[in-house]
Design a protein that fits this description.
Elements (H helix, E strand, L loop, with lengths): L5 E4 L2 H12 L12 H9 L2 H12 L4 E6 L7 H12 L3 E6 L22 E2 L2 E2 L6 E2 L6 H19 L2
Parallel strand pairs: 1-2, 2-3, 3-6
Antiparallel strand pairs: 4-5
Helix pairs in contact: 3-4
Organism: Acinetobacter terrestris
Protein name: TIR domain-containing protein
Pfam family, one: ThsB_TIR
Length: 159
């Protein structure tokens, strides 16, 4: 299977340690996360600069993977990324990461499905986008063993 170019969408403050576990699986492209300092610089330039950065990052990606933590659905830039990726015809999927253990604070509460906030053809976008809730007893390995399949499925659904 070809490695897909992925854009990860997530709530940095709450979930960066869980997200790093997913990024380090190594089965996908090695796109590096923006550093905290770089993100702060982008944010200081204003809303349009953030949109431009997200648009540029998504441009050559085939799939948006929303890593869903306890507060992800409330994040305005996650919402923007979902809408942008969907409108651009990218594969889109969600993976709940609340059962990945963070070294600072263990597991967290399961977050709300962020796709349920969008409507398409009278239905919630959650009706069209799959969200995976990995096995709570071995969430990391469940993600590691299935993420490529989930991504490929999301990309093929959009074709």
């Amino acid at each position: 299977m070809n490695k897909r170019q992925i854009f990860y969408s997530f709530h940095y403050d709450n979930d960066v340690m869980r997200v790093q576990q997913v990024r380090n699986i190594g089965q996908l492209d090695d796109n590096k996360p923006v550093s905290t300092n770089d993100w702060e610089t982008i944010k200081r330039r204003g809303e349009q600069a953030i949109k431009n950065w997200i648009d540029d990052q998504l441009k050559y990606k085939s799939c948006l993977v929303v890593l869903i933590g306890s507060d992800t659905s409330r994040r305005p830039w996650v919402k923007y990324e979902i809408e942008k990726a969907w409108n651009d015809g990218k594969g889109v999927l969600g993976i709940y990461i609340h059962n990945l253990k963070c070294p600072r604070n263990g597991i967290s509460q399961k977050g709300t499905n962020p796709f349920s906030q969008f409507t398409l053809h009278g239905n919630s976008l959650a009706h069209y986008v799959e969200c995976y809730d990995p096995n709570p007893n071995d969430a990391y390995n469940d993600i590691r063993n299935n993420i490529e399949i989930w991504i490929e499925r999301a990309v093929q659904r959009r074709k």
